[in-house]
Amino acid sequence: MTLAEALREARRLLAPVAPDEAAIEAEALLCHVLRLDRAALYTRLSEQLSPADGDAFFALVRRRLARDPLAYLLGRREFYGLELEVTPAVAVPRPETELLVDVALGWLRQRARKSTLAVDVGTGSGAIALALAAHGPPGLRLLATDISAAAVALARRNARRLGLHGQVEFAVADLLSPFRARFDLVVANLPYVPTAELATAPPEVRREPPLALDGGPDGLRVIARLLEQVPPLLAEGGLLLLEMAPHQAGPLAELARRALPEAALEVHRDLAGRERVLAVRA
Q: What are the pLDDT digits (tens) for 16-62?
């Protein structure tokens, strides 16, 4: 079987589970097995696929047919221009979360002060914290926390591999409960999927850790706990950024008003025009 024939067969097999992405996923899996980039793959399509590589490739295709997320099969996911290691210990970083990074970086660049203390709560793979470390201004000090020790270990590995290990401190913590510092910036992509919705989500989503996705009956249980902790920890003039589902904008704004009555609230929309990030300015 040539590489071209293997790709065609994988596309055929993957079409039922990824009708719009079957070709891209087949290419990604074959590139992963052969350790080639896409350009190199297409220069070698007439070559024979070795039996060992063929077995490895179609084993991954079968796992994808069983609805394992592609990012777990590849062991990586790109986020904000950074290639992150991703494992089943963490949720897969998603493109809509890049809006949270955009808003945070915009605010950081407008600050007159040179030193800023920021915390990424529920860091998972470290995506948000590492994007801020890579693209943030000088003087930015970063802390990243997660309740999962496995997630924190993965985030540390990503920081080391990206050469950012000296710019972010990591801690296993239940939200902000252990801390007494005053943070200028708090960013959080916490679980916000209502439990009932998670039960009917696509199989790929249900393969991700419930701890990273399940937000309780209304999706706001974990975020509400963070809002209870934030008031004494958010510095005057500081900013809290929360990712949310579009239908949660109203209820989440009400929770934020109760926690920080004097704060100014602003909702930011993603590229699809959906309300995605709530900004709370102290």
A: 999 999 999 999 999 999 999 999 999 999 999 999 999 999 999 99
Residues 113-149: tens digit of each pLDDT: 778 999 999 999 999 999 999 999 988 999 999 999 9
β-bridge pairing 234-243 and 183-188 = parallel
CA–CA dist 148, 222 (Å, integer):
14
Cα–Cα distance, 240 to 118 (Å, whole number): 10
Contacts of 45 (CB under 8 A, 6+ apart): 2, 3, 4, 7
Cα four-point dihedral sign 194, 275, 82, 120: negative
Cα distance between residue 130 and residue 108, in whole Å: 15
Name residue 76's beta-bridge partners: 85
DSSP secondary structure, 196-239, as one string: HHHHTS-HHHHTS-HHHHB--TTS-HHHHHHHHHSTTTEEEEEE
The SS3 assignment for 98 reads helix
The span from the CA of 110 to the CA of 152, in Å, is 30
Which two tokens mark 212? 């990273």
Q: Are strands 183-188 and 275-281 parallel, antiparallel or unpaired?
A: unpaired
What is the pTM for the complete model shown? Answer: 0.93
User: Do 239 and 282 contact (CB within 8 A), yes or no?
Assistant: yes
Q: Which amino acid is at 168?
A: V
Q: Which stretches of 43-114 are DSSP H helices?
A: 51-65, 70-74, 98-110
High-pLDDT (> 70) share of the chain, %: 99
Distance in angstroms (rounded) separating the CA atoms of residues 102 and 91: 20
Average pLDDT across the chain, whole number: 96
